[in-house]
Each structure stands twice: as C-alpha cells, then as structure tokens.
Amino acid sequence: MTNNRLTTSWGAPVGDNQNSMTAGARGPVLIQDVHLLEKLAHFNRERVPERVVHAKGAGAHGYFEVTNDVSKYTKAKLFNGVGKRTPMFIRFSTVAGELGSADTVRDPRGFAVKFYTEDGNYDIVGNNTPIFFIRDAIKFPDFIHTQKRHPQTHLKNPNAVWDFWSHSPESLHQVTYLMGDRGIPATLRHMNGYGSHTFKWTNAEGEGVWIKYHFKTDQGVKNLDPAVAEKLAGENPDYHTEDLFNAIKNGDFPSWTLYVQVMPLEDANTYRFDPFDVTKTWSHKDYPLIEVGRMVLDRNPENYFAEVEQATFSPGTLVPGVDVSPDKMLQGRLFAYADAHRYRVGVNHNQLPINRPHADVDNNQRDGFMTMTNGKNPDVYYEPNSYGGAVETSENKQAAFPVTGVAESVPYDHNDHYTQAGDLYRLMSEEERTRTVNNIVGAMKPVEKDEIKLRQIGHFFKADAEFGARIAEGLGLSVPEEVK
Question: What are the transmembrane regions (predicted)?
C-alpha cells in the first residue's frame, strides 16, 4: 500500500477522486460529496488579486555574504563582519504588465530583496534603474494609470503615457534610461539592481550617513535587441522566468556584488542636486562605490504561488542601523506597499513562510484573517505590563533628525530635470544614441496630438540639442522655436 495517500484538506484519505457521488448511475450529484464540494470551492479561490504593479515576476532563494565590513557606517548586523552570511529571497518583475504578460517588454524591472536577519527582515525594494519617473508619491496613481489599460478600450494608451511624461519633465532622466539599451535586459541575471532611493545608515555610536544601494551583476550587463525581444515575447513570453529557473537548476548560480555610495549628512544641504530626489543620481566621482558584499542565488522556489506570488516587500521593513530619508517618493511607499499586501494577501501576510522572519517575533498583534500565531505568552497581550511581556529596547530607536518649516504642500526646490538626462545621452556611444532615438520615435509615433509630441521634444532638446533635433526629425516635426 502506498504511503502517498490523497487526502482532503482536513487530512482524511480520499477513496475516489475520479467520480462524483450521485443518486444512482444517472442521478443528480449529491451535496453530501464533501470532497467534490471542497475541491470546487477551493478551486474558485485559488488566486489572490494580482499586484497592481510588478504583477509578472520570478524569484529565487540565496544568501548575502559580507566581503567588506562597513560597521563604521551602520550597526545593521547583516552588513557587519567579513564572511557573515544572511539568507535572502529576491523577486524580479516587470512593472506595467499583467500576470500573464511577456517578460521581454521595454519596462523597468523590479529588484526586491528580502534579507532574513537576526534582527528581523530587511527589504530593499528597488528597480534595475537607479532613478524613477516621478519624485513625489502623490503623482504615483496617475503615473501608473497611464501605464495601464484605457478604461474603455482596454488597450495600452501611448497618448496617456507621453501626455503624462510631457507634463512631468522630472521623468526625462528615467525615460532616456528606459529608451536606451538597458530598457530590455537580456536576462534577469544580466542586469544591475538599485535601491534607487536615498537611505540613512546609523552606526553603533549614533553617527549617520546618507547612502544609495547598487547591486552590480557579476554576469555582466547584457541587453536585448528590440526585434529579438519582440520575437521572444510572442514565442516564449516567460523567457526571463525560464532562464533564471534553469540557470539555478543547472548549478549556474547568478550573483551580484553590493556597493553603496556614502554621503556625509551635511553634504545634503550643499550638493548640486537634491540628494533625496529619486529622479537624480549621485556622481560616482563625488561619492565612489564602496563594496559591501555578494548576493548569490542558489535555490529555486518549491512552489511559485506560495513563495513568489505571496512574497511581500516594503521599503518600510527596516532593521536597526537603517533609516529612511526625506525622499518624498520613499515616504509614500512606506505606507503604500505594506497596505497593498494587507489588501492583496491579507492582514497576516507576514506570518506566511516566505515572509516570516527567521528572528523571533514577539508583539501584541492578535487575530485577524488566517492568523497562525497567538504570541509567546497567552497571558500577556498588552504593553506595558507586569507579567514579563516583551519590552521596548531604546537602543533600537530610529535615529533622530531635525525638522523645520511650515506644514504645507511644498515642491522640491531643485528643478533641473535636463542636465542628468543630457549627460546620460552624451555618455552613450553613437550607436546607442541612434538606437535610443529610434526607440523613442517608434514609441511616440502612435501619439495622436502633435501638441504632446512637441512638448516632449522640447524636453529632449533642453537635455541635449542634438537629442531633441533627431527625435523631432524622426517624427517629421520641428523643434519648437520657444524652446530654442
């Protein structure tokens, strides 16, 4: 007799999984066939809502190993002690497409890393680009609406995409990056990852620095020709997912080296760009990369849904030694990501195996849908208390920071959206410039209003006169005189 007995969800062995129970050979199906009812009811509920953004993704397990002790900058234990290893899980994703969309589209890629540290989980929720399209979270719903489908036609809408971008010149740097060669990675293994935002590291003495994360692929950066990417999108829409899984399955473990840029706190007040503006980068000459460690992916998920689909990440999942910055986009994400998970996966999403910390959890959060724990001490469910319950540890408070000013809706006071976009264009080889211009022209041709095209051409021209002129020529238009 086999030991692999098929059972119901309550563990009872199933005697017949081929035939429904009926009243006679041709009679109606009986409601007392509880195995049938359970199968059908559960099948109807096998999906949770897909992510609004980053719906299509792939993931893997691995470890992070410290190669350069940075304890002088941060007390975060996962970054301290050469040779120290921390288990981690990563999820790569496209941004705009649905769960069944193609992997090889031109789109930023999500790069979300969960470290299971002894001080709890730490998430770095970034992208494969060091910048983003907008710099204030209040614009995020509008931006994503333009990347999604038209509410009437249910088709992608280039009019909305370029109308929004042309009205939001802060997007120009990211648009230039996206339309360049790195807009379509060859594989998930051959792209870099970035924390994008500015974060604050604090050491054991309470001294702080501003930092940016850079994950540099050890496989080298490789990109796809748009024609090849389009062909793959039709022939194998899961190309990137398949490549990552097979590489790990075959023992070809991909890796990334983590670096940080470090900026003294006082430099934030004098740097030539606002260091908290996520549409800008810091010069590597001003703040060189400092090696921290190496991330290796060496284990595939056992179950895609349980691990990749139900994995939840938030930039607010922090550990002692890592704090946030005044980056307005980051500040909005601190709420939005965790709130999305409470809606999509459930209020107790952190108790699922893929999200559960490896460190002890002891708090007074109780009950809710699908809770799996009830605290360490059933007699202590509040704090402070007299029964030996968990207590706060003041040394783990987030670092203090000064605030000044009047509460109001205030824009960033740096509005140079053109210098860094122009620098990026000028850094490209002549061949890549041509490809970038062709990509932009091809993407803008379907836009119906010349008004939108001309406004966007003006932005490209302000970044670099040649850049704007070539795009205008490709669209059969002239650079507006007022821009010149």
Answer: none
Question: Helix, strand, coil: what percent of the chain each, to 5?
Answer: 30, 15, 50
Active-site choice (80, 121, 127, 439):
127
Say whether 54 is catalytic: yes
Burial of 146 from C-beta contacts in 10 A (0-12 / 13-18 / 19+): buried
- Of 258-262, 269-273, 410-414, give the lowest mean pLDDT range: 410-414
Segments of the chain assigned to CATH 1.20.1370.60: 158-184+418-484
**pLDDT above 90: residue 253:** yes
Q: State yes or no: pLDDT of 49 exceeds 80.
A: yes
Which part of the chain is CATH 2.40.180.10? Answer: 57-128+185-356
Alpha helices by DSSP H, listed for 14-125, are 34-43
Residues ≥6 apart with Cβ < 8 Å to 269: none
**Could you check whether the bond before residue 384 is cis, i.e. omega within 30 degrees of 0?**
yes
Is 127 tagged catalytic? yes
Evaluate whether 291 touches 257 at the Cβ level (below 8 Å): yes
Domain 158-184+418-484 annotated CATH 1.20.1370.60: yes
* Average pLDDT, integer, range 382-403: 87
For the range 330-336, what are the long-range contacts, defined as Cβ-Cβ under 8 Å and sequence gap of 24 or more?
Answer: 330/197, 330/198, 330/199, 330/278, 331/137, 332/136, 332/137, 332/138, 332/140, 333/125, 333/137, 336/137, 336/140
Task: Look at the chain and count its residues.
Answer: 484
Helix, coil or strand: residue 53: coil
Catalytic residue among 54, 173, 197, 349: 54
State if pTM tops 0.85: yes
Q: Which token pair is 179?
A: 């339309």
- Under the phi-then-psi rule, with left for phi > 0, alpha for psi from -120 to 50, and beta for the rest, what region is 54? left
Q: What is the third-level CATH fold of 57-128+185-356?
A: Catalase HpII,  Chain A, domain 1 (2.40.180)
Lowest-confidence range among 46-55, 61-70, 375-384, 389-398? 375-384
pLDDT reading at 383 higher than 60: yes
CB distance 168 to 329 below 8 Å: no
- Run of H or E including 89: strand 85-94
- Beta-carbon neighbour count of residue 354 at 10 Å? 19
Interior/surface letters 285-311, b for 16+ CB within 10 angstroms, e for the rest: eebeeeebbbbbbeebbeeeeebbbbb
